[in-house]
Sequence to fold (402 residues):
Amino acid sequence: MKIKNSNIVCILALLLLVACGAEDNLLESLLLPGEDAAGLERPEVVFVGPATGSTGVTLNTNIIITYSKAMDPILTQSALQLQAGGGATSAEPFWLSDRSVQYTVSPSLSAAKRYSITIVSSLARDTDGNYLAINYLSHFYTLGAGTAPQVTSANPGLESAIQFGWGLNQDPVINFSVPMDPQATGDAVTVSGGPARFIRQWSNNNTTLTLNMQDPLQANVTYTLKVASGAKSADGISITSPKTYLFHTGTDTVQPALNSVTSGTFVWPALVAYPTLNTITGVSKNSAFLFDFSEAMDPSSTIEAISFDPPIGGQFSWLTPTQLQFQPTNPLVTGATYRMAIESSATDAQGLTLPNRYLTDFTVDDPLDSVPITLVEVRGYTPGPDTADGSFGTAGTITGTP
Fold:
């Protein structure tokens, strides 16, 4: 058998490579990406920064990946894949050592994003030719992303009712679930309803805010304490559940009540508080409305709390400190239905609000003066042929239709 010279040359070259100790390089050259050179240890990711699950990462932070072995810089630096839901992901690599590579995102990390890191195993190769066994996964949250802060407790602490008996020198206190941004959160916390001058004081860990009153609050006033959506955690995350608390200064703890509503001479049945929609019929088109309260009311807030839809032109007037009358300018529309709202913003002379709001649909259909006249029947006699006055004629009936 004849052996071609070219085959002999190839065999001799292979033997020469083995003899020179180049078998590892030869084996590596025959490997596909993701395969390992025989007998060599795979590299691992031993450090990632920012750490997995980190929150509040500042936007100028670099990403650092450290491997357990010296890595092939050209191939491995392309192993990083970033995802940020529309945020910046272009990253420039810089090798800090043969094991650690730093990535700088351009122009910077994006705010309020979840960054997902993937180290692609088929691109992360050490200098011995070994690849990562599997893709390495990590994630972190930049400033403005992550868990939203919450108000865990407050004093005053009633959201659906008024806290009575608040001291004129008593300090409101708000507790948060996480450390807060003192400036942003302080600006988002307000007190309204009356004069209130205070200094905002934070606990050492910025989770408790005390409003230290510098002057006594005004007596017999309902104040509103608000925590608006501008309140932010130290990580820059906005609060998702703004809060509103009501508290009343002074000794009067009895809220006013709506005793009755009268239209003309018709005293309405007792109204049920919202969300029930009351329905009233039999209202006269010529009615004036009388609102009777259990206590002397604040004139302006009470008038502003009453409205009609569609609007009714007219004039409010106080008959007594507890009785308010509304006189329409023109008669109401016959057969029409109006909606009357009495809001809980109506306050008494001591600053206490109504405990409820009321919605009522009333129909203008008083049968005496507010419905069309309908001819029901006309009775008479038809003169007979032998009578001139019809007294003995045939009875007849005319019946009207609605």
Summary: The first strand starts at residue 45 and ends at 49. Residues 59 and 331 are 67 Å apart (CA to CA).
